[in-house]
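User: Predict the full complex structure for these chains.
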Amino acid sequence: MKYKSQKVAYWFFALSMLLLVLQLVYGFVMGFARIGFDNLHEVIAFNTARAVHTNLLVVWLLSGFMGAAYYIIPEEAQRELVSVKLAYVQLISLAVVGVVAIVGYHFNYWEGRKFLEIPRPLDFLVVVNVLLFLGLILVTLFKGKRRTTTALVLSMGLLFAALLYLPGMLPFDSQVMDSFFRWWVVHLWVEGVWELIMGGILSFLLIKLTGVDREVIEKWLYVIVGLTFLSGVLGTGHHYYYIGVNKIWLIVGGIFSALEPLAFLAMALFAVNMYRKGEKKHPNKLALFWTLGAAIVSFVGAGLLGFAHTLPQTNLYTHGTLVTAMHGHLAFWGAYGMIVLAIISYSLPNMTGRKLYLSTRGRAAFWLSNIGMIGMTIAFGVAGVIQVYLERKLGMEFMEVQKETNVHFVVLIICASVFTIGIIMYIIDFYKHGKPSDEALEVNMN
Amino acid sequence: MLSKKQARAFFLGGTLVTFLIFIGLTIYSFSVENDQSNHENITEAVVRGKRIWESNNCMGCHTILGEGAYYAPELTKVVDRMNMKYDGQGEEVIKSILMSPAPWQPNGRKMGPYEMTEQEAADMIEFFKWIGEIDLNGFERIVSPLAKKENNN
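Assistant: Here is the predicted structure of the two-chain assembly.
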């Protein structure tokens, strides 16, 4: 840590961890409901748990991205954040909007649009919150001594993410148009601009952890984000195959979404090569684990598993089945969950001055959470393939098929428990670092 | 060897070109002659049905047009499916489920009591019927009960 204002990142990360734990709780509520233990139905019906689970995912990741930006931008721009007080105002308002939305979901206060359940009045508060955040980041960057590619890519990702939230707020009478523009938000976030954010954070971490020349890393960063947009924008078409829009998307979506794994492959190769090339042996091995892990697991989860059901001929049968949940879990975890945990693992010792680099608990957290998540992905995958075969090929009734998949949800819950133990260990490590301190400025490793 | 400037040009150029094509294809998809969503059949009742669908977050359990939560049945062709199952009385059965003051628990999965009025339930039926008529590029054959029967024969 080089600037005192970077400490604000800690509180965004702490909020992020809190929301992650809550997300897991609601995930278990759904898992148990699927195997018949829906005892909380009166209080937390499945649709409530589902909305809370997915929205908490978005908010904990966004809180992590914001924390990452508050940590990275001052260091890249070589100046303090323009206003720490406003950053805290933004943090509190983010938490308030999140809590109101989640509580509201328990009382039927929602929009019922997958991933974008937040009601319109709260949408406007989200916009104000994000504008405040962007203002702080962009003004800091503008007033800074230097504008690096890493900072620009990260800021562009955050700016576009905010702009792309707007199409999701447009009201439509047609379910088809509603769905079409909802994907402008959801797809162009996760398979577009969020990858800029991921790329920016990854680039910052690789510069710090490997010691490879910034120019080399940033050049490849441009190539990767270029590949991301080249494939990802038109790759949105894979959501349009079967929702009631023109057949042209079968061709466009099919070709470009088949290219999407290339961006993730490039990211994985880039990270591993930079690590091999690097002469600097940074002592923070845990941060390195999470950084390289994010690049590799995102390739498997988002790239390979996405490709597995992205072609129209396959998607005709897998569309609207648990196969999507298989891909979704490992993709979000690898691409975004792990990169947030990577930047936390890197920055926490720098902010607190406590360099718990080699803790056994930290390593166990990494392996248990990853093994657990891979197990969950397999369980979803097997259940998904069974669903596709029995329901879509043999024509069995939906609920009859669901009974056949029960056992895989038992496996899912077991794997989710392993994952949760890993996350709890990570959070214990987070807690053991203590709070951020100005004294950490003096023991800064970088 | 690629320079940083060339890499930046690749990123900015590629993004701009693909985004422009994307906007063009969006306009093309929603032009009247290419519309396959039955847009002209969206009545006020269909719109009211859509609002009810959203305000109850039905998508949080069910799927429609293949989108949703995979916890409860796909409803794209629900009217056809229930008509087949209940000898042409599908609409009445759906209405009775939606209007029921008691919770429903088909095959052990709970659905709360929505206690809709006759009008609200009728609006939902209109919404489902409109959805059921959309040209889904072949997906309708996969989720449709009639198609399933044909496939199995």
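Chain A is about 75% helix and 0% strand.
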